[in-house]
Amino acid sequence: MTKPYTKEEIKEKLTNILSEDFEVEKSDITDESNLFTDLGFDSIDAVDLAVRLQQFTDKKISPEEFKQIRTVEDVVNAIYDLI
Hints:
This protein is mostly helical. The chain has a single domain, classed as Non-ribosomal Peptide Synthetase Peptidyl Carrier Protein, Chain A (Orthogonal Bundle), CATH 1.10.1200. Helices cover about 55% and strands about 0% of the residues. It contains four helices and no strands. The protein has helices at about 5-20, 45-55, 65, 70-80.
């Protein structure tokens, strides 16, 4: 079965969400960027991001899985695996 999005498309959408909704500079967003230490996220931002990603994918990331997410690449991989 073909995935509806490639990892590149997911990263592009994530980058836009981080930039537009969380005011993160696009130049600061790399695969290795840590959401908390590099991009300044707190727990409320993380919940807001989970909600935005649920709207994008129409699927919910489990709380246990979301707790494991630290980097932009982790988010991309979690979404890719979810869809």
